[in-house]
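Researcher: I'd like a candidate sequence for this fold, 355 residues long. If you have to choose between options at a position, lean toward the conservative one.
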């Protein structure tokens, strides 16, 4: 009888534990689904706060300005630097699209015939010259021939623009989150040290400091330089009148983050500029673009004295994987996150096991 009661009690206890675990799991899953859209902005906000915290500390000591004022100025400037160009770019894209649709309806769209030098482009010169000439002579017939592809590309472009605007909004949210962390920097650091010590042990503080150094290294030595190159490329292309400058500038940013030569994008742009503008100005733009392309060689020593000891493959996989997972913001978060994981993993491997 006693054994039977014990078995019944064990069964009831097991059922009770399973029910509690299921209910707890459902609650945690529901809570995770609620906060999931904010995970990437929060992580990027933490990365921004870690990167700029030493800068704000230096400015606070040097100019004796309240930290809250510095954080407000920094956040406001960063948001304006994102929102204003985005507004101008969106207005330009909408205006250009409206004019294009109007010209197509009225049949007044004209395309300038290509220069003979287009034929000299390697590999694609003859094909580009032939199709460009066909579009210049009879644009409507050419458009009808490629109508399915045009619709497909148009849908991709619209989807990309929507994703970009969503990424800008996430950036703004991340900046606000970063401002909160910067305002409570001492408490945030203590909390991170406490969590690290709880997870790792006595070396938790050391690993926390290593994490901060790695984040700053990647942001300054990779993402910061990539943004400078993209902005300089965008300014040059806007001045010389390259269409869709924002798209080529984003590709420059992407290539620079994954540590590939930006000439992959800037080279064809230079060739295109030679096809429609004065050779003198095209040469000036070519020299400017080449300088932008190699600028990382002398920017890295200035922005990061010790260099970034993270393999290019890690940055590449992190950037591409992050972008696939979380869009434009994931491009930055993925590169930093995988680099941090790699650095901590290598540090763990190099440590001698305790007896």
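Model: Candidate sequence:
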């Amino acid at each position: 009888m006693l054994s039977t009661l014990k078995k019944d009690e064990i069964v009831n206890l097991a059922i009770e534990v399973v029910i509690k675990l299921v209910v707890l799991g459902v609650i945690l899953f529901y809570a995770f689904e609620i906060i999931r859209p904010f995970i990437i902005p929060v992580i990027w906000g933490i990365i921004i706060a870690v990167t700029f915290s030493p800068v704000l500390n230096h400015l606070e000591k040097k100019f004796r300005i309240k930290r809250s004022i510095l954080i407000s100025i920094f956040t406001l400037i960063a948001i304006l630097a994102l929102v204003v160009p985005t507004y101008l770019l969106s207005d330009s894209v909408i205006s250009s699209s409206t004019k294009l649709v109007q010209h197509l309806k009225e049949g007044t769209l004209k395309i300038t015939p290509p220069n003979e030098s287009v034929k000299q482009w390697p590999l694609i010169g003859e094909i580009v010259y032939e199709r460009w000439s066909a579009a210049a002579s009879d644009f409507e017939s050419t458009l009808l021939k490629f109508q399915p592809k045009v619709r497909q590309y148009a849908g991709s472009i619209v989807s990309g623009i929507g994703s970009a605007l969503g990424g800008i909004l996430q950036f703004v949210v991340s900046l606000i989150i970063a401002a909160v962390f910067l305002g409570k920097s001492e408490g945030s650091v203590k909390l991170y040290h406490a969590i690290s010590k709880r997870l790792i042990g006595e070396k938790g503080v050391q690993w926390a400091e290593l994490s901060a150094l790695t984040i700053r290294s990647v942001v300054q030595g990779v993402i910061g330089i990539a943004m400078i190159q993209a902005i300089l490329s965008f300014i040059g292309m806007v001045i010389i009148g390259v269409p869709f400058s924002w798209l080529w500038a984003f590709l420059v940013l992407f290539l620079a983050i994954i540590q590939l030569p930006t000439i992959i994008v800037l080279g064809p742009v230079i060739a295109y500029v030679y096809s429609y503008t004065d050779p003198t100005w095209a040469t000036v733009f070519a020299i400017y673009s080449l300088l932008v392309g190699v600028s990382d060689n002398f920017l890295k020593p200035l922005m990061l004295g010790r260099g970034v000891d993270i393999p290019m493959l890690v940055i590449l996989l992190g950037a591409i994987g992050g972008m696939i997972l979380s869009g434009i913001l994931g491009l930055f978060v993925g590169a930093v996150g995988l680099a941090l994981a790699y650095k901590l993993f290598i540090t763990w491997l190099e440590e001698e096991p305790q007896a």
